[in-house]
Write a structure and sequence with these properties.
500 residues; single chain; alpha+beta; seven-stranded mixed beta sheet
């Protein structure tokens, strides 16, 4: 496996770890909620049919103890999740840096990540089963031996030790919030019990309402807090680690905003996908400056339930999605709002190309996604023994100048500027796609207004290649005007989709 592929996999693994940690914490909280709900339901059903006030007072005290137990347990579970999220954020930076250092620095040292996040097991003390039971005490969380072996990689020799003051603050906040959720749910349960005494609802109805309060209302609030705060710990740790790595002398390290992929995501966050900035700079998200996803200094509207990540980035590293991650048809089907994201992205690419070609912005090697490979093309490539490394088709600000360069203008083969600025449309809706037998590349063909010849964009297909310095994606390498009869020449071009 190439070094670039290892780096991409390490970053993807850390992102997957965050999602799994959040799910693990919510699984534990769900278990606690089910435990409390079952106990309350059982206790309520055991009350006599002539429900009296003294029964209510007694039961409310028991509910208070049970909910206090839940708040304590849930707080410990959530705090442990924040610690796991923090460590995952550290690994997301440490491991790619270590892999890159191992390939270039013989005197690097060995770095061994800690136990896998998902090995954390919190012993749970059952809630009181009798009205007069004493409030249970819960042992502190402990970590069981991990079932997965630590990953041994070679690390940057000056790998920093991070100050965990912010992690401690997040742990304290989570513990407090879980107790708040518990206290508010307890009040709501007591209101339901009060309705039984007044005869406004039966005990069975109250049991159903209480179960809903715990498993729907309480769970929804807990999920929001866990997803936000565990993710916040992850992001802060990654940001602090990148800052420390740069301070320790690491050069070329940047950060990239990566959208969550959630169906009901924020449009501004989707539009920021692929944005690359220096480690100490902020991303521009919907007109606001945000250092990283779930930045505590950002507005709550930008951070609550955010599932994005800011991944470490280097121009020398290989990325699974080098630029924007395309919006799939399934995502659009499930959330039609994402059509707006697609449209705004295309407009952004058009402006980016225009300012690059007219010299308003200086080309610096930035890449933009301009389309994806259709499945018939992918199937054709596989029949040729070519397995695409990714589905995206991208173009760099250096390469976009090639189809319009002075030499082609002199030969009368340059593509019109207006065609280049709308390259996304040409890629998404070509007249035909051919396979070039000589250059082993895809040739996207389209009509050019006022021109008898056809426009052509040459797309190089990227498969896994450890020798190439180019990014691991399919890219537009060239283009120009071509006569129709050339594309019909046998043994030169093989049609895949459409024809001329």
């Amino acid at each position: 496996m190439s070094v670039k592929k290892k780096i991409a996999d390490a970053i993807a693994k850390a992102q997957a770890d965050l999602v799994a940690i959040q799910a693990n914490v919510m699984g534990e909280i769900d278990r606690l909620l089910s435990e409390v709900s079952g106990q309350i339901k059982q206790e309520l059903s055991s009350q006599p049919s002539d429900f009296q006030i003294w029964h209510l007072t007694r039961l409310q005290k028991w509910v208070g103890r049970a909910m206090t137990w839940f708040g304590d347990q849930a707080g410990e579970v959530a705090a442990a999740g924040a610690r796991d999220g923090w460590e995952a954020g550290v690994r997301m930076v440490d491991e790619p840096v270590a892999i890159a250092a191992a390939a270039s620095t013989p005197e690097s040292v060995t770095y061994i990540p800690g136990p896998a996040s998902l090995s954390t097991v919190l012993p749970i003390t059952p809630p009181p089963s009798q009205p007069d039971a004493k409030t249970p005490s819960s042992p502190a969380p402990s970590v069981s031996p991990t079932t997965t072996q630590p990953i041994r990689v070679t690390a940057f020799a000056n790998a920093p030790m991070l100050d965990k003051q912010q992690l401690v603050a997040i742990e304290g906040f989570l513990t407090h919030k879980m107790k708040d959720i518990s206290a508010d749910t307890r009040k709501a349960i007591n209101r339901e019990l009060g309705l039984v005494v007044t005869g406004l609802q039966g005990q069975a109805q109250a049991a159903t309402a209480i179960e809903r309060l715990l498993k729907v209302g309480g769970r929804r609030r807990a999920l929001t807090v866990v997803r936000t705060e565990v993710g916040r710990a992850f992001s802060i740790a990654a940001q602090r680690n990148m800052e420390e790595q740069v301070a320790a002398g690491l050069t070329g390290l940047k950060k990239k905003w990566r959208r969550s992929g959630k169906i009901h995501s924020r449009v501004s966050h989707d539009l920021a996908d692929g944005q690359v900035v220096a480690v100490h700079e902020s991303f521009k998200i919907g007109g606001e400056s945000i250092r990283f996803p779930r930045d505590p200094e950002a507005k709550p509207a930008q951070t609550i339930n955010c599932g994005c990540t800011a991944v470490p980035h280097s121009d020398r590293w290989e990325m699974k999605h080098p630029a924007e991650k395309p919006i799939s048809e399934e995502e659009i089907r499930r959330d039609p709002r994402k059509i707006a994201v697609v449209g705004k992205r295309a407009a952004g690419v058009e402006k980016w190309i225009k300012t690059t070609l007219d010299g308003t912005r200086k080309a610096d090697g930035e890449w933009r996604t301009v389309g994806t490979l259709p499945m018939p093309v992918v199937d054709f490539l596989r029949s040729k023994g070519v397995e695409p490394a990714t589905m995206e088709i991208a173009v760099s600000d250096h390469q976009i100048k090639r189809p319009a360069r002075a030499a082609k203008v002199g030969w009368g083969k340059a593509l019109p500027i207006e065609m280049l600025t709308s390259i996304s449309s040409a890629i998404d809706s070509p007249k035909a796609i051919y396979w070039g037998e000589q250059d082993k590349a895809l040739h996207y063909v389209f009509e050019v207004p006022g021109e008898q010849r056809l426009g052509k964009l040459v797309v190089r297909v990227r498969a896994t290649d450890t020798r190439s310095r180019l990014k691991r994606h399919n890219y537009v390498v060239s283009g120009g005007l071509v006569n129709r009869d050339v594309l019909l020449t046998r043994n030169l071009y093989e049609p895949i989709i459409g024809g001329v």
